[in-house]
Amino acid sequence: MEDRFIYQMEPWIGKEERDAVCAYLESGGWLTEYRYTRMFEKMIADYTGASFASVVSNGTVSLFAALMACGIGPGDEVIVPDFTMIATANAVRWIGATPVLVDIEEKTLCLDLEKAEAAITPRTRAIMVVALNGRAPDMAALTSLCQAHGLWIIEDAAQALGARQKGRHLGTFGHIGSFSFSAPKIITTGQGGALITNDADLYDQIVKIRDFGREKPGMDIHIALGYNMKFTDLQAVVGIEQMKKLPERVERKKQMFARYRSNLADVPGVQFIETNPEDTPPWFIDILVDDRESLAAYLKEHGIGTRPFYPPIHTQVPYRGAPGEFPVTERLAAKGLWLPSSLFLTDDDIDRICEHIREFYHRGTRLAFQV
Ligand SMILES: Cc1ncc(COP(=O)(O)O)c(C=O)c1O
Predict the structure, then answer these.
(1) pTM of the full predicted structure?
(2) Strands, DSSP E only, in the chain?
């Protein structure tokens, strides 16, 4: 339908989720986290291949819990890419440590490992690597780097559920991986986050941190400083239905990216990020263009929503003046545009969007000829 406004991203909840919520409410559950939350966690662990998964209230507190479980705090430095959603850097600040911003590599839009190595100081305790849009830097190289310097690896894989590198799920390379289930993610519970790890001690700490530092759930004996980061079974019943749909969604994301790329292959103004079709289902369809604002305005006039890339972290108010040089982040953040990426978009929707992008560039050529 030509007239329907196509938003850049909308969640997709179906009859299965509605039925599951109604059935749960009719069963008189306690609403807070219990059996369904444990089932949801098991599905995440099984799907990613991690030994343990622990769900929490969102993908920001999960980063905070990861840092806390690794014993990071005031006086410590944590390397964070300059191009990420701001929660990555905020979690480091929130724990009292210093986020050390580092530029990204052009190929993946993720942390530049050479520049990260150059930023390591005696105070560095961890690298918080971000799997931006389901892509990641060379994780084997990152692991060697961190081993050589005795650093923790925390993977902010908020945007990477379903994404792998050489067949291995992102989030499982580091000591702890973190996911988000906020509304635009590949699966959603409205809000929500998860931590995965293969380390039983870290898991044990995480479980305590998220539940007031309790020695055991349901007891009022507290053996550590903890918080309330708990989930709810009401969300878990939605999450379980969404997880059942994940494999299909991962395939659809890959198809959507391939369709956009082939439709726009001959439009010279549009550049795609190199993407391995086996491993990466880009969460948002990302392009680099020189005339982002006018393309976005043109698409909006034609009923198509887009979203500009995040500004570099060092340009955001709480981080202004952060030391470092960020030429790649600055250049790419200014050119990046996320195209409509909702999972329910049809091939016809994608063709229509691409047609308007093509028109925009042809119109530009005609104007250039008239000059
Ligand atoms: C890379 C990254 N990290 C962290 C977060 C924060 O997750 P949440 O919104 O669940 O707190 C997001 C959310 O989009 C994200 O994209």
Answers:
(1) 0.96
(2) 52-56, 77-81, 98-102, 124-130, 152-156, 164-165, 168-169, 176-180, 193-197, 271-272, 285-288, 307-308, 336-339
